[in-house]
Amino acid sequence: MTGPVVVASDLDRTLIYSEGALALDMPDALAPRLLCVEVYERRPLSYVTEAAAGLLEELARAAVFVPTTTRTREQYGRIRLPGPPAPYAICANGGHLLVDGVSDPDWHGRVREALSAGCAPLAEVREHLVRSADPAWLLKERVAEDLFAYLVVDRALLPEAWVKDLAGWAAERGWTVSLQGRKVYAVPGPLTKSAAVTEVARRTGASEVLAAGDSLLDADLLMAADRGWRPGHGELAETGWSVAHVDGLAERGVAAGEQILRAMLRAAAR
């Protein structure tokens, strides 16, 4: 007997979209009906199309669907995806592996050990982020799950050269930098979505792993999958990132999320 198909997908700007990321560039009368899947501070925040909602429910029946996100556990907990609760979910870019909604302590311990051995400490990176950022465009500074750091910035004022310089500085210390919307992430190199998904595949005896993502922090996930998809927006699309087994879609915004789900469902049902 063959094992199940594991479907690991990034969430923000891959499957779910904030108002600013919807990219509804069609005439109003042709815009898709939307379903809100996240509320924050009593306001709707993230959406999928109604068609995508139905596809998610079908996918959860056809495969082991694994939400795979850089969000913290608290941020992930705000999302209400259609279909049954996911048996596994990956938060904090692989720092937490949730099993039936609860973080696996053994996995988290292994992650901590890898970070201690493989890269500069968080305190050093955080201090550099704050010291080098310009108050003219820095809006907020945050640490996520005591694992990585990020800045919320005014994207219009953010110098590209600063991001490039930061990426070089971070790489020398074993860290990765990713610019996603208004957030600049600094993430330890050993902290990866792919490692956590590989663990889920091992536990489930998966016969195949499918993946989707839009940012630099999703590249390792897509590389490790048997087949993958990326939307027509995001860091990977903007840099022309491609590998043979990952399909780059032309669709952008919430329409891309729907198309990714269609493709995953077809692949999982084979």
Characterization of this structure:
With 270 residues, the protein is α/β, with parallel strands linked by helices. The protein contains nine helices and 15 strands. The protein has helices spanning 50-62, 73-76, 105-118, 122-132, 160-171, 193-204, 219-224, 235-238, 254-268, and strands at residues 5-9, 17-18, 34-40, 43-49, 64-67, 88-91, 96-99, 102-103, 138-144, 148-153, 175-180, 183-188, 208-212, 227-230, 246-248. The strands form four sheets. Strands 5-1-13-14-15 form a five-stranded parallel beta sheet, sandwiched between helices. A four-stranded antiparallel beta sheet has the order 9-10-12-11. β9 (138-144) and β10 form a beta hairpin. α1 packs parallel to α9. It is globular. The model has no long low-confidence stretch (mean pLDDT 96).
Task: Give a quick rundown of the structure.
The protein is an alpha/beta fold and 270 residues long. It contains nine helices and 15 strands.
Percent of residues in beta strands: 25-35%
Total beta-strand segments: 15
Note the total helix count: 9
Q: Per the principal axes of the C-alpha atoms, what is the gross shape?
A: globular
N-end to C-end Cα span: 15 Å
Low-confidence stretches: none
Instruction: Indicate the percent of residues in helices.
Output: 25-40%
Most strands sheet: 5 strands, parallel
- Cα radius of gyration in angstroms: 18 Å
Could you say which structural class the secondary elements and strand pairing correspond to? alpha/beta
Mean pLDDT over all positions: 96
The order of strands across the largest sheet is 5-1-13-14-15
Return the string of H and E elements. Answer: EEEEHEHEEEHHEEHEEHEHEHEH
